[in-house]
Amino acid sequence: MIIPILKIGDVLIVTLQSELTDREVEELSHDILDKINKVGAEGVIIDITALKVVDSFMARSLNSIASAATLLGSEVVVVGIQPAVALTLVELGLRVSWGVKTALNLEKGLEILKKERA
Amino acid sequence: MVEQRSITRELVLLFEEHEKELIDLWMTKMKQLKLIKGLSDDEREQEFRNIYRASLSAFKTGDYSEVENYTSKIAKRGALQGIPVDEILLSFLKLRDVRLRKLFITYQGDLAKLLEALDCFEKVSNRIFSIFVLALIREREETIHEQQRALLELSTPVLQLRDEALVVPLIGVIDSERASRIVEELLQRIVETQASVVVMDMTGVPIIDTAVANHILKTVQASKLLGAETILTGISPANAQTIVTLGIDLSMIRTRSTLREGIKLMHTMLGLEIRRRDE
Amino acid sequence: MDEQMIEVKNDTDIIRVRRIVREMAVEIGFGELDQTRIITAISELTRNIIVHASSGKVLIKEVQKTGKRGIEITCADEGPGIVDIELALKDGYTTSGGLGIGMTGARRLMDEFKVESVVGSGTTVIVKKWMK
To answer: What is the average pLDDT across B19-47?
Structure first.
């Protein structure tokens, strides 16, 4: 599966449409970091509205993408986490170790990125 | 055993043959007593015939499932239309009386037979009566349970204070069922209102123990994943002491002593400033 | 469809297990939140099988207890087994470089959790969730 990475201004937007296998997640991580580097994106929004499940592997991958992106001078915001997914992630044990910025939706995510750069 | 079966058959036959007569008599009695006034005559007759036949099938087959189905239906309708429990019970007892009289009349010349008939009749009739009472109690219990649930929801309001800001005034003891309800409700409201700040006021929470603190922590973290920051207010000095003693780490949460201070902080976080118009 | 056995050996099977578990959870009547908890827990346990034992089986079935309906999922493998179960159930403990919350997380998300492991012959984890 090829997941499109859109570029709008200085921001990359990645929308996950369906559940991904571990390998697809790894490929996606690679692609995002590659693209950040190529276009010099200042921010990345990963929209996971369509995901009904986020397990620890996915959570860890999002965290890794965010940490690596920071090293490349780019800020990652994960948007669209469903309420049931949010609660499950917390119960699963996702605590301080997860340092990813989050926002309710795409619009709010863009606001955060704008504020960060202001 | 064979004897008893034959008397049962006799009773069933008797009640079947005199169905119209007995139902009419039953209806007349009910009218005199002014019971079950909510139904029209047609409805009532239909209803009575159903009860009559359902109970007769219990006599006939020894199978009470039809009676059980029917009684729970009546109990539900009774609760729905506000028919008092005593009226429902009296109606049933009246049917018993009407049939009992028929037995006395039929077997008046034969005491032995009468006693035998009563043995059979009482057994079935009492059983049906207890099924009736149980169904009514069960219905009441369900109503109470529903009301408790409604009360539980009322006791965990999530209020929208302004665009982007919610207030959750917690009052009373927080057990884990209530805590789950609160967090689910809050997350839903965050999505609906797109709130970015939540003020959770604990002034009305008497005791904060490890379980409550963990629930709060969970709520704060889940809200954060949806992009909303939480401000915790109104923790009493005694509760603050307990939290420290228990070694619960709430340091990652923004706290303010009072709801008023919490709302001030909320304004700051939203980038708002409140001033008198003439200043 | 009240019992189903799935062989798992790679990461696409994790997605398949999730889908089948979801179908059964929906059929039993679990709400959205509990569905998410169950599926997430099973996702963790299935990945454990693949990471630590490379292959195994997942058995999903509907169960009943005093009138309550529930779901029971058994994850079994013939991998190396767990040397110290208590340690494996500690938050943050990991042998695979993960977040170390797979097993403990799955336990928190479910109502019942049982693990049996024999070093050298495999691990079986049985979890249950009941309808409220």
So the answer is: 82
